[in-house]
Amino acid sequence: MNYNSIISSRKRSIFKLAVLVVALSFLGTANSQQFTKKKLPKSETKSSIRKTEAYLFAYFTGNSGNQEAIRFAVSNDGYNFRALNDNQPVIDSKQISSTGGVRDPHILRGEDGKTFYMVATDMTSDKGWDSNRAMVLLKSSDLINWSSAVINIQKKYPNQENLKRVWAPQTIYDVQKGKYMIYWSMQHGNDIDKMYYAYANADFTDLETEPKQLFFSPTNGACIDGEIIYKNNKYHLFFKTEGSGAGIKVAVSDKLTEGYVLRDKYIQQTKYPVEGAGVFKLNNSNDYILMYDLYTKGKYQFTKTNDFENFSVIDKTVSMNFHPRHGTVMPITANELARLESKWGTAKDILTSVEASVVKKTNIKADGDTKQVHLPVKWGTNLSAFQPNFTKFPGVTIDPKSAQDFTKGAVKYMVTIESRPAEIWSVSASVANNPVLDGFYADPDIMYAEKTAKYYIYPTSDGFDGWSGTYFKTFSSTDLVNWTDEGIILDLEKDVPWGNRNAWAPCIMEKKVGNDFKYYFYFTAAQKIGVAVANKPEGPFVDSGKPLVDKLPNGVSGGQQIDPEVFTDPKTGKNYLYWGNGYMACAELNDDMISIKSESITVMTPDDTFREGTTVFFRNGKYYFLWSEDDTRSENYRVRYGISDTPTGKITIPKNNLVIAKNKEAGIYATGHNSILQIPGKDEWYIIYHRFNYPNGITMGDAAGFNREVCIDKMEFDKDGAILLVTPTHEGNKPLKK
Predict the structure, then answer these.
(1) Number of Cα atoms under 13 Å in the Cβ half of residue 122
(2) Same topology for domains 47-343 and 346-431, yes or no?
(3) Please, which of 207, 292, 460, 708 could form a disulfide with 443 given CB 3.0 to 4.6 Å?
(4) What is the pLDDT of residue 27?
């Protein structure tokens, strides 16, 4: 017997058996993977697992010109986003659309993990909201270069002749069919908007199935701006509905294309109109972000949830150096972020993206031509060893990395973006006490409260498109530099039944009543003047129940009932209310401080420079009247004054009566609508006013008129009592000594 032959034969048999076992094992694994792929959505398949460390935000910005184009922004944490390409389009709308514009971009990572899909509404708003019939499909392997195709639904499908509009497409991978499903809203004739779906072809250049209805709101309202997210073995369809109510709701189903059951409650965490719900999962977290466009306010709101039922507002942790409209966010890898930065990142953007909390981020100024950046910082910052903490993006290096001495002038920083030449920039920093409030506020009224020995500013809440804010806040300070947000003191929509809009230009009065104090808050609502009362300067304030002033004075044919000012005559103890836009009116208040003596109403417009914003104070036996000239949207908005011998008498106009005006050299514009503060017991005076946002306001057009910020500068007089011209500054004033 040939043992070698037998052993050889057995080895071959064992080898064949091993191959067979491996093959069967592989086949079983393949079948298992195939089964898994059919049963699990993209978010749970192995093919889509990759380490995502950052985020890409695709959005558009508005309704005109190149605003209707796709832009990109990036973030390391999902909360703080910075625009790429200086907030300019990354794709030319004219090259990819039939209308010349695109809106509502939705971006998706493909099932293979390395292909990207984007869809958008093919539309320009100037042609009308019912003007579009098409969507745009885009595909990329690198997030930089995109192929595209236009799908005109009405031309492609003969049964769509009464189609009016095609809005807000989005894409999701259907694991059952192994295809990408596109879903969007359409309106036909006089019917409501409903959600439809169809499948894209393999190349993502066309639709290969006819549109089918996916969902319609059982409340018989419009159903638009859909977003489908798979979580806990359920498909959650977020959508906007309109009709008897308006807002974002959720419908849930076990299946992607049918069976959605409505959860009949609104989930947006705001009272303002919203649209464009976008949902994304935070990296390395079980939490999701639901964001949406407050389109009437020019703002975005971010909320957080882990169950898709309870949502908390996180706006205070979110920052963006751009104003997005209806967009979506997709997690990306560090390499992908580095690639995006290499293509569209700029040294200017890198050096204006700082994380140091002492930097006033809305006031950073950068000049790409001279390669200079200025960082305004809060009082108390140690500039001799200051670390701006520039945001660290993959593919970007910044040197030096350590804290630097900014007291000796600008510091040179070298910024290197992967695959591009390094750039040297000069970065300077200085203390800027103006603006004194964080955020956008206007029309400030200031008061020193004897009860608390604190100063309080009561402003218009600004930053809302068309001056559409509906609430008032107050801020307190002991030194006029460091201010504490005391929160909302009066909300028109909840607290003022006679006027639920346009919360503008308030003023405040502290009065001793018995052994305590009361606070009378006069405010504008719906172009009428009301009054609310509180026992504390920070409220809460209770509305009197009706407007105090709701019609034009006799003899006045135009203007608005806005901008109240309250003043106590130190000679007589009488209280007066002033108001008016286009005219200045005055009336004596009754002792209750919530009603006026109608017979005392008088019109005392000083001259034709008067626009609005009356302010009155008393000094050395004279009554000073200040007012704003021009329009709050104008860079020449400014303050003038006159003097009278009585609080209701003829106002004499000095020859040089300008109080404060723009400081063009400092980039400060539209310095108006002020109040005046006298430090108790001293002949020390300050003017509190608003200006355009610095440095961007001057470039914003009319929007600068509702993106304003509050400032304080010292005001002085000459020996004859004339107000010396105030130069508005960024530095402001040092803290008052206690």
Answers:
(1) 20
(2) no
(3) 460
(4) 36
Strands (E), 333-370: 365-367
Contact 498, 435 (CB under 8 A): no
Domain boundaries, the chain: 47-343, 346-431, 441-715
Neighbours of 558 (CB within 10 A): 8
Fold of 346-431: Immunoglobulin-like (2.60.40)
Say what the pLDDT of residue 221 is. 86
39-to-172, 174, 638 alpha-carbon distances in Å: 15, 10, 67
The DSSP code for 50 is: -
CA distance 432 to 365: 12
Quick one: tokens of 122?
Answer: 């093919």
Question: How many other CB atoms are there within 10 angstroms of residue 491's CB atom?
Answer: 16
- The dihedral built from the CA positions of residue 106, 107, 110 and 111, taken in this order, carries a sign that is negative
Instruction: Check whether the bond before 695 is cis (ω within 30° of 0).
Output: yes
State how far the Cα of 640 lies from the Cα of 176, in Å rounded to an integer: 72
Q: What's the rounded Cα separation, in Å, for the pair 705 and 466? A: 9
- Average pLDDT estimate for 439-455: 98
* E strand or H helix that includes residue 657: none
Encoded tokens for 437: 């409030």
Residue 732 structure tokens? 């402001």
**How would you classify the pairing of strands 80-83 and 319-320?**
parallel
Residue 196, classed as helix, strand or coil, is: strand
Please state which of the four CATH numbers 2.60.40.10, 3.40.50.2300, 1.10.1040.10, 2.115.10.20 is assigned to the domain occupying 47-343: 2.115.10.20
State the CB neighbour count (10 A cutoff) for residue 140.
Answer: 18
As a CATH number, domain 441-715 is 2.115.10.20
Predicted confidence (pLDDT) per residue in 535-568, tens digit: 999 999 999 999 999 999 999 999 999 999 999 9
pLDDT computed for residue 407 by the predictor = 98
Query: Cα separation of 515 and 495, whole Å?
Result: 28
pLDDT higher than 90, residue 32:
no
Distances (CA, A) of 104 to 123, 142, 204, 671: 10, 21, 18, 37
Q: Spell out the residues 6+ positions from residue 451 whose beta carbon is closer than 8 angstroms to its own.
A: 510, 516, 517, 536, 537
CA distance 322 to 299: 10
Q: Is the pLDDT of residue 606 over 90?
A: yes
Distance, CA of 171 to CA of 180 (rounded, Å): 7
- What is the distance between the alpha carbons of residues 488 and 681, in angstroms, rounded to a whole number? 31
**Residue showing tokens 């309109």:** 242
Q: How far apart are the C-alpha atoms of 523 and 324, rounded to whole Å?
A: 32
Give the span between the Cα atoms of 672 and 627, in whole angstroms: 8
Strand boundaries in 541-601, DSSP class E: 542-543, 565-568, 575-579, 585-588
Q: Which residues contact 535 (CB under 8 A, 6 or more apart)?
A: 516, 517, 518, 519
**Residue 379 Rama label (left phi>0; alpha psi -120 to 50; beta):** beta
Report the predicted TM-score, pTM, of the whole model to 2 decimal places. Answer: 0.89
What's the token pair of residue 369?
């031509």
Neighbours of 328 (CB within 10 A): 23
Give CA–CA dist 253/250, Å, rounded: 10
Most confident of the following: 43-57, 234-248, 259-273, 626-640: 626-640
d(CA 252, CA 404): 54
> What's the rounded Cα separation, in Å, for the pair 543 and 574?
23
Torsion angle (degrees, nearest 10) of CA 308, 313, 314, 320: 100
